[in-house]
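Dear colleague,

Thank you for sharing your sequence with our group. We've completed the structure prediction you requested, and as agreed, I am returning the results in plain text so they can be pasted directly into your records. Please verify that the sequence below matches your submission; if there's any discrepancy, let me know and we will rerun it promptly.
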Amino acid sequence: MSKQFLLGAVCLAAVGLGAPAAIAQPAPVAAANESDPFLWLEDVSGPRAMDWVRSENAKTLGVLEKDPRFAGLYGDALTIAQAKDRIPMPAFLRDGVYNFWQDADHVRGVWRTTGVADFAKPDPAWTTVLDLDALSTAEHANWVWKGADCRWPAEIRCLIDLSDGGEDAVTVREFDLQTYAFVEGGFNLPHGKQDVAWESDDTILASREWAPGELTASSYPYVVKRLKRGQPLSAAVEVYRGKPSDISVQPFTLHDGQGRQLTLIRRGITFFESEYYLVDRRGVQKIDLPLKANPADMVDDRLLIKLEQDWTTAGQTFPSGSLVSVSAAALAADPAHLQPTLVLAPGPRESIDTVGATKGRVVVTTFENVRGRAFVYTPAGVNGWSRRALDLPDNATIGLVSTSGRTDQAYLNVTSFLTPPTLYLTDAAKGDLAAVKSMPAKFDASRDEVEQHEATSKDGTKIPYFIVHPRGMALNGANPTLLYAYGGFQVSETPGYSPTLGKLWLERGGVYVLANIRGGGEFGPAWHEAGLKTHRQRIYDDFAAVAQDLITRGVTSPRRLGIQGGSNGGLLMGVEFTQHPELWHAVDIQVPLLDMLRFETIAAGASWVGEYGSVANPDERAFLAGISPYNNLRPGVAYPEALIWTTTKDDRVGPQHARKFAARLSALGVPYLYYEVIEGGHGSGANLKEKAHTTALEMTYFTRKLMD
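Please find the predicted structure tokens below.
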């Protein structure tokens, strides 16, 4: 409830006291990799590498921008991106709502506010709080909004994260919501990968690179210090020190609607395993939680915890995937001995998506066979809970947008492939619902329909997928089809309304398929864990099985089938490109991982060992060598012409993977298209124009490959 992240994002998702230790280095890879002829492309901003990037960009733009359809596709994409009738997604803050907004007049965006009642009007009276375009001009910078953390309960002072061009690294500056100005002499933490949390009105906890090199092998901080108002960074006092071998160490604060607060530290041991510590006047104390448990929010003195593994404690076992609660007061008194209470245990085809607390209730969204549900949970008695379902549309994705700690109000967004999103406001105490905003239709969906099918993977597992297609579609294998999936990090892929996909692809007669392959979170932790590390081939087999099912049904054929995925999904694309080149005619590889023998040494790659494994482990290294797209390109293979794109500013995955993959294709004489956005972080651009441009390049590519 304390942190307001007003972002539109792509991709990954996304995290003892003593003397400083040396930074742990990832294990070396095989000698064959040391002779990699394209290692020079790993020098992200080096002159030689950037000359190569500009040359590749010129070649690709010379093909795609000169296509007669590009201008129209870009015009449509930009119109959609800058449309002022989009739903301004709200965040409860103080006595109103706040929203971060970008359009043609606000390229970098404005943070703005209005009242709850006024927000429901067709044309709310917005007040600008912070104008990033004006700030960037004044400071000769390219600021990208990364969120704000406002001190509860007054919510007057906020710690604002600003990124240079879209990087994960940010500058943190204190802002005043009464004067709408940065606080003179306030907290100001210079550029770096860092996390901050309010401990009191005049004290924050921060994890950052306090001393040169004081980062984990994953490039994240592991030392937390306490900084008081007016102090220089050099005066900050150490509170907790993790290990250089950790993923990261992060402070954060949770509170309930009555003003109770827990200040916590998360020590990320692996991407999925963490220890949690309570920070109070006694110091730092370890909390008795399983390694795969995540504190989600607080309500009525109860800490809500999502479990990603079974938890046996106090004579009771709580199953993986459950939501439980513990007394916050009891935790504060004795964090080593907790007595949890079950709130929700999902069924075998069900999973918990989001959890958010209001002043006295909890709103939980779930998926049941990849269909959204929403419930209100109310504390009952000492440890009990009662549940009430919210009557929202079926066959849709239901997302929790924001909850209020001052009232029992919450905003939820409801969307599906062919229905524009509608924003609902509910009073969780009363159970009422009101539709307050709806996006107008952005494409003609009257000729389309949605079906859900299942493919059988290599090991017999049933893999569900959605297909959006024209009514009465001929099953003759001639339908141009885009197949998308992610398949990792327990990220759920669910139906959603995409104006650009609808306008630029579906309206032109294209078919779209969303595959719910293993590695995701659609069916809880077990669905994800089935594809971890050396079991990852199951994910790739799942994807190929969906493609084969589409071909067998006559929906499409290899000549008309294209695939698309980003980040971890970009790795998926690379694997499918090398393992099944005969199945696709177009492969869109977005901000990808591709060199899986060096991923631990590139950007934040070491943080994903829990997902992929490590070259330091012989069995895992052998598996990675067998699936690594970069290392499995072979001469004489008839590969499809791929579109590979990334961004220079991506400090999470890094552009190195995409660059080297393209360079190796070039050396093999394989046709390809490569594009690198100079700004934008781990996404498709730093502003709406850049993002629309990248989208238009992609859709021009797919149109050329699949519709011509």
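Summary note from our side: Residues 201 and 383 are 32 Å apart (CA to CA).

Kind regards,
the structure core
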